[in-house]
Amino acid sequence: MEMKTFKIGGIHPADNKFSANVAIETLRQLPSRVVIPLSQHIGAPATPIVGKGDKVKVGTLIAKSSGFVSANIHSSVSGTVVKIDNFEDAFGVRKPAIEIEVEGDEWEETIDKNAKIDRTFNLSSEEIIEKITEAGIVGMGGATFPTQVKLMPPAGKKADTLIINAVECEPYLTSDHRLMLEKGKEIMIGIQLLMKATKVNRVIIGIESNKPDAIELMTTLSSRTMSVEVCPLKLKYPQGSEKQLIVATTGRELPSGQLPIDVGVIVQNVGTAYAVFEAIVKNKPLVERVVTVTGKSLKQTKNLLVRVGTPMQFVLDSVGGLPIDTGKVVAGGPMMGKAVSNLNAPVTKGTSGILVMNNKESKREEMENCIRCGKCVEVCCMGLQPYLMMKLAEKAMWKEAEEEAIYDCLECGSCSYICPSHRPLLDYVRFGKSKVMQIRRERNLKE
Amino acid sequence: MNNILTISPSPHIHSGDSVKKNMRDVIIALLPAYAVALYSFGLGAFIVSLTAIFSCLLFEFLIQKYLIKGKFTLGNYSALLTGLLLSFNLPSNIPWWIVVIGSAVAIGIGKMSFGGLGNNPFNPALVGRVFLLFSFPVQMTTWPRPLGWASSYLDAETMATPLALIKNAIYGSSVSLNQVPDVVSLLTVNTAGSMGEISAIALILGGVYLLIRKVITWHIPVSILLSAGLFALIMQLVNPSVYPPFYVHLLSGGMMLGAIFMATDYVTSPMSHRGMLIYGVFIGILTMIIRFWGAYPEGMSFAILIMNAFTPIINKYVKPKRFGRVKK
Q1: Which of A54, A66, B9, B124 could form a disulfide with B110 if both were Cys (CB 3.0 to 4.6 A apart)?
Q2: CB interface of B with A, residues 48-77, below 8 Å
Q3: Same-domain status, A142 and A261
Q4: What's the structural domain count of chain B?
Q5: What is the ipTM metric for this complex?
Q6: Which residue range forms the structural domain that includes residue B248?
Q7: For the whole model, what pTM was predicted?
C-alpha cells in the first residue's frame, strides 16, 4: 500500500526505539520533595493559590491559570507546601515554582482511581472544554500549548477535521506508542470527547509505519466509529510537526504565518487525548505523564509513568543512575529536545523523554568548509535554504534573512543533521530567526 | 554529582555523513571506469593517473603548508579525487610532465587560489584540462588506440575519436560517419578518447552507485542527457547524412563522464533541485552547440565551465519550492 507522507524535504534518522516493547511502568517510589513549576506551558505562568505550610493532596489545585493562554497547575503529591520561590529549571533558568514536601500518597476524593471505564457521560461541548481547562491539560507532545485554547477557534473560523498526532517521529521516544498499545480504548474515548468538544465529525489518527502494532490496534478500535480513520504514514522526520502532519494526512498546505484552524484543522497529540479521557471520565487533573527514559548507554530503557515535579535525577536513579561515560542528558528527543544542565530540575507536563547520551555521542565533529552540496536545501521541510540563512545570520544581514523567510523555520534540525561538513546550520538560523522576529515585532508596534 | 554535562543546542544527533565519505564514494564510483582505462590503455593510463593523483596531493600539501598556512586538508580525499578526475580527462599517451603542469593549474589556480575546497567557482579538474587543451593542443588531441597492456606509453598507435569523425562529417567528409564505432563499442571499451571516458557502461555503473548512496541526485545527469539527446535527435532528423543518431552523441566523448561526474561536482553546481535542472539543460544544449558548430569536436568541458560561472546567479534567482506558498 502506498502510504502518505509530506512532500518537501525530510530525513530518516535511525529510530533507536529501544523501549518500544517495554510496558509502561508506574514509578511507585516518590521523591521526598517535588518542585512543581508554575510555567509548564506556553503562555503566562499560573498564579499560586496555596501558601507555605498548606496541606495538599494529589490533584489539589495549587496554581490557577492567569490568562487566556495559560494553564492550571495541580499538586502531583500529597504533603506540605514548603516554599514558593524561583528554582533553577532543567536548562539553568530560574523560574517560579512550588516546592512540596511529600507525605504519604493521598489523592483528592473526586478522582476515580478505578480502572473500570465508564462510558456514560453526557456533557456539552462547553462542559468538556471547561473540564479540560480545569484539569490543566496542555499539548503532551512537548509543545505544551494549553489544550483548551486550541479547542476554542476564534469567531468565524470552523474546523472540519481533528487530527490526532500519534506520529512520534523523534528517534528514541516511545511514550505515545506504548500509551496507544496499553490505553487504546481510553484514547478512543478521549478522541470522542475531543470530537464533541470541537463539534468536528471527522478524525484522522496519524501513525508512522514503524509502529505497525499501534496502527493495527487503533484501526480495530476505530472500526466501530465511521468518523475515525487511522492514517498510516511513511516513516520520515519531522512528520510529527503540525504543518507536515496536516499536509501528509489531508493534503492541506498551511500558508506561512497561519494556524491549523485557518485550513479547518485542529491537531491534538495522542497523549493529550488520553489526558482528556482521564480529566473527564476519571476526574483526574494532569499530574503525571509517561516519560521514555532511554539511551544507548543505559542498561535498561523504560517508559515510566512519572509524577510531574519529580527530579530528573530521581527518575534516572530508578533505572540505575547515570552511566559513568554520560556526556549529555536531553529532555525530549535527540532532534528537538533540549540539553539538560540541572538534573535536580523536575519532570514537567511536556517532558516526553529523558535521553542519556555517552561522551562520544555528545560531542559535535569539527566544522569544515561548506562544500555547497545542497543537502541542507534538499532536506529542509519548509523549502528554505539553510546554508544561505546561516551565511546571512553570520553577517547580520537581517533584511535578506527575512526575504529568505527565515521566520518559517521550524527548527527541526534536519539541516544540521545532514550536513557533511558538520556545520551548525540550525544554531545560526535560530539566532537569525529570533533577530528577524524581533525586528518584525518592533515594526508592527510602530505601525 | 561528578558528571559534567555537555550543553549544546539541538539537534543532538548527526547523520554521520562527512565530506570524506562523499569523496570516497565518488572515488569508488570511478573505479569501474578506471578499470576499463587500465584494461584498454595499459601502462599509459597507469602512469598518467598516478602522476595526476600524486601531483595534486603534493601541490595541495605545499600550498597549504607554505602559502595558505591553513588546516591540513589532504585527509578529505578531495585532492585525490581532483587528480583522478583530471587524469580521466586526459589521453593516456600524454607526457607525464604535462600532467604535472595540469595538476598544478587544477589545484593551484582552480582550487587553492580561491581558498580551497568549497570556495572554488570552477571545477578544478576541468580548469586543469582546459588549460592543457589550450597550452598543449597537439598532445591533448592525439588519441591512442585502446590496445591494452600491449600498447606503448608515449609512442602509442593513434586513432581518431568518434567525435572527431562526427566533426569531419559536419565539415563535409562523406565517409567519416561510417567509421564511427558501433553502439556496443561505445558502451564498452573499443574506442579512442580520454582515458576515463571511453566506456559508457562503466560510467553509468558508477552513476548508479552514486545515486544509490545518495551522493548525487538524478537532476543534473538526467537533465544534461535529456537536453543533449533531444538536441541531437532534432539534428539527426534534420539531416541524417551529416548528423549521426542521437544515441551516438550520448555515448561518445565526455558526455557520460561530464554528466555523471564532472557537472555534479557539489561546489560548482547549483544548490536547489530546480537550479540543478536549469544548469543541466544548459550544459546539454551548450555541449551540443559546440559539437555541431564550434571549433572543437567536444564541448562538454567548456559547457560545464560556462555553467559553473552561472551557478551563483542560478542560486540567487532559482529558489526551492517553499512550504505554504501555494498561490490560490
Answers
A1: B124
A2: 76
A3: yes
A4: 2
A5: 0.90
A6: 161-317
A7: 0.92
